[in-house]
Amino acid sequence: MDRSKLHPINVITGNIQGLIPKTMNKVQFLNNMAITQNASIITLTKTHLDPTTYDAEIQMNGYTPCRSERINRSHGGVIIYIDNNQPFSTLAEYTDKHCSLCIIKLEKQCIIIAILYRPPDCPSESFRQALSVLSKTIICDSTPCPDILLLGDFNLPRMNWPEGNIITGGTTIEQAKARMLLDLCREAFLTQSITEPTRGKNILDLAFTNNDNLINHYNISPTIISDHDLITIQLNYGYINPIDVDDYKTDRPLISTLDFRSANWPELIKDMSKVNWVEVFMNTGPIEQAQLFLKKIEEVCAKHVSPKKTMKLKKNIIPKTQQVLSEKEANYLKKIITTWRAVAALASPRKTVISRLN
Question: How far apart (Å, rounded) are the C-alpha atoms in residues 235 and 285?
Fold first, then answer.
């Protein structure tokens, strides 16, 4: 398999402060950014859309939108753009006059991605209801357990991350909302990864996951389309573009040609234990690390494992005992036919043969 054809999953997320304002074409800006950064997923909060907005007005080339807008109130709202090469399913869309939530699942990678927006003036009950929908959707007993990536603008500046400590000095109501979020984190085993400010000096745009190895790294960069910075997250996952599938199927890894029944396991394990993986993986990304890891395994295995023997096709694969029985049956049948023909030749006309047999 040519692992260079694995495409990394990059996610762009942030508070967009209106997706289709009259003064700027943010959709085209984000589309170009997504193509440049090879983004598979784009999650945005505060889209300012409403149910009368057509998908065609916010369409990005090569992506499918999944959105949720406020009911009977402007502003707010969330959207997820998914690369058309990524099979996904929509798990939940929730909104009220305050919070908005959208949840999808990447089917091949078994990753749940959720985007939530909580405005500063959000009542406690509205936030509690949104978290309840989120909890019921992402916490499941399915096997394998999906990885979770929860993104969004939670507007909770008085918190220390990644520890999740509430900073004193806020109102009682704000502290209660912060505790609601922390309760969900404990319930779903989520940790928050963003530790740099995303608006001014505050960390408002957050990224939670239940798998510490899900996120490889992230970058925070200012943008002209919002006073919030945009976050680009690279996941430790890759996917194969459908145009590469034929090559993926025909490439045969070296390891599949080896006969591990003949492996010299003590020497193989000894050589593997000598590998300095920290040095091998230094200054490399997840795709390069996967390539180096498999290359090293193939090198060691080729040294201590013999190739599989080529099986020659036999001309006759019928078991010997079955051959003997078949030959005896054929000889017996041949004798019967010969005897019948001899009897038939002596009888004339045919009726005489039949009368003799009776």
Answer: 10
- What is the full DSSP assignment across 281-323? HTT--HHHHHHHHHHHHHHHHHHHSEEPPPPPPPS--S-HHHH
pLDDT in tens, 201-243: 999 999 999 998 899 999 999 999 999 999 999 998 876 555 4
Buried b (16+ CB within 10 A) or exposed e, 11-40: bbbbbbbbbeeeeeebbeebbebbeebebb
Residue 191: predicted pLDDT: 94
Q: List b or e across 106-130, with b for residues whose CB sees 16 or more CB atoms inside 10 angstroms.
A: beebebbbbbbbbbeebeeebbebb
Distance (Å, whole) CA 183 – CA 168:
18
The CATH fold of domain 3-242: Deoxyribonuclease I; Chain A (3.60.10)
Please state the domain extents for the chain: 3-242, 252-307, 320-357
Model-wide pTM > 0.90: no
